[in-house]
Write a structure and sequence with these properties.
173 residues; five-stranded parallel beta sheet; alpha/beta; Rossmann fold; 7 helices
């Protein structure tokens, strides 16, 4: 188990993951800890593909470089939107997922971290009420706190909410 103080965020290149990356960057900056961005890449099951195709399969491309670029692009876009986030120490990590959910890889990497961050999957009214399978796996199996970032989260609204809470706290004292 890694006991280095850090925040871990999972990304699959989706808009929901980009929101989670932005949230994790802000949280890492607030806590002055490094951020580890994890992109989990599913390893193809050659047996099922070979049986389905019944002919010689071409070599599948290595998906890790593309996953690393997509994750790094999400970090770069968040820093471009808010240059103050550029001071966060960021490591982009690509993990192979041999079997099961990418959630397992995230839980393993996040062991000993201060926080694990994942995006919320939402597809319409019903889908937005249901937690995605990766997020659910993380919530059920992680030994560290987990934050599920809703797709509607924005840094501007979060700052406005913080300022509103601070104003009410000052009025109560």
């Amino acid at each position: 188990m890694d006991t280095t103080a850090r925040i871990v965020v999972g990304t699959d290149g989706s808009p929901a993951a980009a929101t989670a990356v932005r949230y994790a960057l802000e949280e890492a900056g607030r806590r002055s800890v490094p951020l580890r961005v994890v992109a989990a890449v599913a390893v193809p099951d050659y047996w099922s593909e070979a049986l389905a195709v019944a002919r010689d399969l071409p070599d599948l491309p290595d998906l890790r470089p593309a996953a690393r670029r997509a994750a790094q692009n999400q970090v770069d876009e968040a820093v471009a939107a808010d240059p103050a986030l550029g001071g966060v120490d960021v490591v982009v990590d690509v993990r192979d997922v041999v079997a099961g959910s990418p959630g397992r890889a995230l839980v393993e990497v996040a062991a000993g971290a201060e926080l694990l961050v994942v995006g919320h999957r939402g597809r319409g009214v019903l889908g937005s009420a249901i937690l995605g399978s990766v997020g659910l796996y993380c919530v059920l199996h992680a030994t560290t706190p987990v934050t599920i970032v809703p797709a509607t989260w924005s840094p501007q609204r979060a700052r406005a909410t913080d300022a509103h809470a601070d104003a009410h706290a000052g009025a109560a004292t």
